[in-house]
Design goal:
Layout: H1 3-27, H2 35-59
């Protein structure tokens, strides 16, 4: 697949996620938006970021010893 098409798809998914989040923030009841729920989301996002970093590092070639 061409890099331009992949970039457009990633942008569309990211923008769609932002719009979905903005819509959900307005429609969710108040008890879903308290600090405990926000902390749980932060932990989940941190876990996803850590797993993504580990996968990307595993794709790197090993360093060459001179």
């Amino acid at each position: 697949m061409r890099p331009t098409i992949v970039g457009i798809i990633v942008f569309a998914c990211t923008f769609g996620g932002v719009l979905l989040g903005m819509w959900l923030q307005k429609t969710l009841p108040g008890h879903h938006l308290d600090t405990e729920s926000k902390d749980a989301v932060k932990v989940g996002i941190g876990l996803i970021a850590m797993m993504t970093a580990l996968v990307l590092v595993s794709l790197l070639p090993p360093p060459r010893i001179l």
